[in-house]
Specification:
Layout lengths: L1 H16 L4 H12 L9 H13 L4 E5 L5 H7 L7 E6 L2 H13 L6 E5 L2 H10 L5 E6 L6 H9 L2 E10 L15 H14 L4 E10 L2 E10 L4
The structure holds S-adenosyl-L-homocysteine, 3,4-dihydroxybenzoic acid (DHB) and magnesium ion.
């Protein structure tokens, strides 16, 4: 009942606020056809990611967890000319479908996908002195969010924005005894954030066609 209503409201808001988007529709169809799980951000959340890219004038975006490239496309479309997005994905099938979707969406000129375990890619990026990135979207395995946070911090600059998906996990995040390693991963991430003086953070619970979850937003403070 609640889920029905949340989905109806998402559909209503999408219809009012988002222009018809045959390309994103096709991206979802291709991902579904390839057997990818439908765990990409919602259309409204995708637009939020794009708006954030635009609002901070991001020119360099890092994504951890690509899936079929839906959220990456939402952000890449909002980049200014010359802007770049790098996305990290471990699953070869997801990576292949995403590459095809980047072409489909006409963003393959500004999007690069790096295959492999994200933590290894982040370490390589540190070694290469890549970045700094203006925005990082954290959305891969929840168990490793803390390590991704620590590794990304070195790739950000004062004023950079960190966005993390799935920080509420159907409300399970409040259960310290949860046997779910994903919940424990998110709790460890939030504990780590609470001890991080370089970031100022907030989180919003969300309901919609993806159930009950939450988006975390954090900004790297100016050095002091
Ligand atoms: N951001 C996407 C959804 C990502 S789903 C969107 O909204 O469109 C999470 C993705 O993280 C999956 O594709 C999964 O394969 C990937 N993933 C899981 N563990 C990973 C790891 N260790 N390194 C890189 N990617 C990983
Ligand atoms: C899962 C992962 C996600 O990033 C998400 O938004 C929803 C579900 C999952 O691994 O089940
Ligand atoms: Mg997610």
């Amino acid at each position: 009942m609640e889920q029905d209503r949340w989905s109806q409201v998402d559909a209503y808001l999408e219809e009012r606020l988002l222009p018809p988007d045959p390309v994103l529709k096709e991206v979802l169809r291709a991902s579904d056809q390839a057997g990818l799980p439908p765990i990409q951000v919602s259309a409204l959340q995708g637009r939020l990611l794009g708006l954030l890219v635009e609002a901070i004038g991001a020119r360099a975006v890092l994504e951890i967890g690509t899936l079929g490239g839906y959220s990456a496309i939402c952000m890449a479309r909002s980049l200014p000319p010359g802007g770049r997005l790098l996305t990290l994905e471990v699953d070869p099938l997801h990576a292949r479908v995403a590459q095809e979707n980047f072409q489909r969406a006409g963003v393959d000129d500004r999007v690069r996908l790096r295959r492999g375990p994200a933590l290894e890619s982040l370490r390589a990026l540190q070694a290469e002195a890549a970045g700094p990135f203006d925005l990082v979207f954290l959305d891969a395995d929840k168990e490793s969010y803390t390590e991704y946070l620590e590794a990304s911090l070195d790739l950000l600059h004062p004023g950079s924005l960190l966005v993390a998906d799935n920080v509420v996990w159907e409300g399970e995040v409040v259960d310290p005894a949860s046997p779910d390693p994903r919940v424990q991963g998110i709790r460890r991430f939030l504990d780590r954030l609470s001890r991080e003086p370089r970031l100022t953070a907030t989180a919003m619970q969300t309901v919609g066609n993806k159930g009950h979850d939450g988006f975390l937003l954090a900004r790297v403070l100016p050095a002091r």
